[in-house]
Amino acid sequence: MPVQRLNHAVLYVRDVERSVAFYREALGFEIVMGMRGAAFLQAPGSTNDHDLGLFEIGASAEPSPAGRTSVGLYHLAWEVDTLDELERVAAKLTELGALVGASDHGTTKALYAKDPDGLEFEVSWLVPASLLTDEILAARAGIRPLDLGADKERFGAQTRGGVGVSIQA
Question: What is the rounded distance in angstroms from the CA atom of residue 146 to the CA atom of residue 47?
Fold first, then answer.
């Protein structure tokens, strides 16, 4: 049987309490279990045991060289249900000084942010399969600036996005 989806991610962080506070405020994650130097968080509405594990390695930890001088993970991506929710998350990430980019990948509307340790993550809304057009599919070949206002007008602010990869049946 093939892999179905990502169940959770685990990150090494400098200060677990600081990281928990960030992910709670930025994305609404809640602690489901914790112990000295570690926390396990669950996203709102998730059915996973946990979605994010955080392990503290201390304030003297160096920044990750991944993508600069070594191979490693670039970012994690979480989905939201609606463009209104993506807009709300964009405002919260901006308020926290964490938003570092926003892109339109055709089938995916994406925000990029960094946590307190500089680890990058993405929050995205996927065009539902029922709304995919040849134009949207072709747009995956490039990256454009995100225009949430235009996307909300085109797709609807409360339209539920696709789950996983939006594919036409």
Answer: 30
Structure tokens at 95: 């308020």
Q: How far apart are CA 131 and CA 82, in angstroms?
A: 14
23 contacts: CB under 8 Å, gap ≥ 6: 29, 41, 52, 54, 115
37-67 tens-digit pLDDT:
999 999 998 999 999 999 999 999 999 999 9
Q: What letter would DSSP give residue 57?
A: -
Longest dimension (CA), the chain: 51
CB-side neighbour CA atoms (13 Å) of 22 = 24
**Rounded Cα–Cα distance for residues 14 and 37 (Å):** 10
CB 72, CB 12: distance < 8 Å: no
Whole-prediction pTM: 0.91
Q: Give me the sheet containing 38-42, strands edge to edge.
A: 9-13, 52-56, 38-42, 30-35
Rounded distance between C-alpha atoms, residue 161 and residue 117, angstroms = 30
